[in-house]
Design brief:
145 residues, alpha+beta, eight-stranded antiparallel beta sheet, 14% helix
Length: 145
Amino acid sequence: MKRIIVALMVGGMVFGTVLGGAAWLGVNGGVIQGGTDSSLWCDGDGVEVLGWGLNSTTGLVENVRIGDVATDCAGAGLQARIELSDASSYITGPCVAGHDYEVPILDPEPGIGYKLCLKDVGAMGALVSVPAADIVQLDVFIEGP
């Protein structure tokens, strides 16, 4: 009986320690949101996520629109990687199926910015769409001319 009581007390202390430690953990939300980044080589104040393109029939995300790209980046290529909650990821590129994964930074479409469609690298650049709730991270890359 004494062993059971000691075991319960030790178990309670371990549970309390773990629960208390979890209270100090940071939270990283998994919702789609727009934002900026300030670590791109040609764009000191960062780029902006202007919006996400949803398929009106399926409700799945097909593209992301990037804007506020500095003119110093002209001639470079723009692409992004979208990571999902299941640890898979997709690269973005022009909204046509094929092997191109960079959108040239020239002139953004007025009101649209640079539209980057999700592509499956393993399927010869086939266009894909994913549930919005599964997107956990967006990384934007600008590769110099």
